[in-house]
Amino acid sequence: MTCFTDHRDLSRATATGYLFLLLLFSSFINIWSSCSNGSCQVVDSCSHSTDCGPGLFCGNCPALGKTQPFCIRGQATIPTSVIGGLPFNKYSWLVTHNSFSIVDAPALPGVQRFTFYNQEDTVTNQLKNGVRGLMLDMYDFNGDIWLCHSFRGQCFNFTAFNPAINTLREVEAFLSKNPSEIVTIIIEDYVHTPKGLTKLFKNVGLDKYWFPVSKMPKKGEDWPTVTEMVKANHRLLVFTSVASKEEEEGIAYQWKYLLENEAGDPGVKPGSCPNRKESQPFNSKTASLFLMNYFPTYPVEDEACKEHSAPLADMIRTCYKAAGSMMPNFLAVNFYLRSDGGGVFYDLDSMNGQRLCGCNTIAACQAGAPFGSCKNISMPTPSPMTNSVGTFSGPVQFSTSTSTVYHPNHLIIALFSFPWIISLFF
User: Fold this and answer.
1) Where is the signal peptide (predicted)?
2) Last residue within a domain, chosen from 10, 44, 73
3) Which positions ≥6 away from 251 have C-beta within 8 Å?
4) Contact 315, 293 (CB under 8 A)
């Protein structure tokens, strides 16, 4: 009996050992078979940014309960690289709201900045990642023209970012290196210096790319084709919020050419897409470009991934219907990189797919094929990216790091929730 007991215990021990080895082997197989070294696709789990494929980074979205890192898309498909040669107004482009208002941007020496932030990487990086429209707030400040937030139309040292010429140099460098790309700049204009903007753009060398106001459609007709714009080197569109500057400086008055929905909270309210008061009505026949604002009044970095999920796609459909089946040409957002996977980039692919070929995504378009002839793609997939992928330097997590992410906007929003503080500035 003693021998039998010993043999039985030995058998159990052997079986347990085999089971342990089997489980251990299975774990190794799972690890070996999981993606890594640039093979991970959108929403695949990742540990480091190098795990994800081209145009992707490793991040998360705690606002949606997604705390484990996964691959997130970070670069747009340039629609003209898929189907080119169409009028400029037949495409949809990504715009960054307050492109200059960058987290961790250095403040003036000896000054603590006290304002909101809207983006997380440089303008150069934004352009490399497919952003083709920049919203810039320009002010007279310190004897120069600065990019700045304001209180009642005035720039202060604690709301200033940098001289506008610095950002415009980034735009000039991009246009110089990318001779087939077109960039749009939309200026919230508080510059009162006579000919100030004209001198600014000329000093930085952007006048050579200027799309002349005289050639802009004024009766709702199509714009020139992107091929014609590139051939003429008219690759920079500039709009101002001041009507008089169209005649004085040759800068297009924004709401003469752009239809626009309300910015801030009214622009993100589900099921509603109201016309901006300064804009022509959506049923206007004199403007052939449509700018869709989609960002809350108070920007919060870690909420943007939630905003850029299903609610954004729903709002695009809402605004499309509100504008009489007119697809937005420009989609303006805060923190454009943050999403639950595909984000603004998948939505742009969908918009351009419907525009250019009648497909659900631009990845299904086939150049030269009849409209509505689509590749069999079950879901949006990452499109081929360019080689010049921007390197992201903001606080989006690229790994499993659990370090606290600094969100300066939280403090600003908390302070502005007290009416007595608002009264100090207004």
Assistant:
1) none
2) 73
3) 187, 197, 198, 213, 238, 239, 240, 245
4) no
258-308 pLDDT, tens per residue?
Answer: 999 999 999 999 999 999 999 999 999 999 999 999 999 999 999 999 999
Residue spans of alpha helices (H) in 155-288: 164-177, 196-204, 226-231, 245-249, 254-257
What are 197's two structure tokens?
Answer: 């903007």
- How is residue 176 written in tokens? 């110089």
d(CA 290, CA 287): 8
Model pLDDT for residues 155-211, shown as the tens digit of each residue: 999 999 999 999 999 999 999 999 999 999 999 999 999 999 999 999 999 999 999
* Cα-to-chain-centroid distance, residue 183: 14
Stated pTM of the model: 0.86
Is there a single domain that holds both residue 178 and residue 132?
yes
Looking up tokens 């709002």 gives: 315
| Contact assessment for residue 58 and residue 49, using Cβ atoms and an 8 Å cutoff | yes
Under 8 Å between Cβ of 87 and 355: no
Distance between CA atoms of residues 93 and 80, nearest Å: 10
Q: Which two tokens stand for residue 233?
A: 């080197």
Expressed as residue numbers, the domain containing 51 is 32-73
124 and 67, same structural domain? no
Note whether 36 and 134 are same-domain residues. Answer: no
Going from the C-alpha of 105 to that of each of 317, 385, 395, the distances in angstroms are: 35, 28, 12
pLDDT tens by residue, 367-377: 999 999 999 98
> What is the C-alpha to C-alpha distance for residues 189 and 140, in angstroms, rounded to an integer?
10
Residue 218 makes CB contacts below 8 A (sequence gap 6+) with 256, 257, 286
Closest among 63, 23, 55 to 38, alpha carbons compared: 55
How far is CA 156 from its chain centroid?
A: 27
**What is the per-residue DSSP string for 272-332?**
--PBPTTSPPTT-SS--EEEEE---SS--HHHHHHHTSHHHHHHHHHHHHHTTS---SEEE
Q: Are residues 149 and 88 in the same domain?
A: yes
Has residue 7 been placed in a domain? no
Residue 379 has a CB neighbour count (10 Å cut-off) of: 10
Is 69 found in the same domain as 146?
Answer: no
- Cα→Cα distances 324→21, 237, 282, Å: 64, 25, 7
In a domain, 396, yes or no: no
Packing angle, helices 343-356 and 310-322, rounded to 10: 40
Q: Which amino acid is at 139?
A: Y
Same domain membership, residue 169 and residue 315: yes
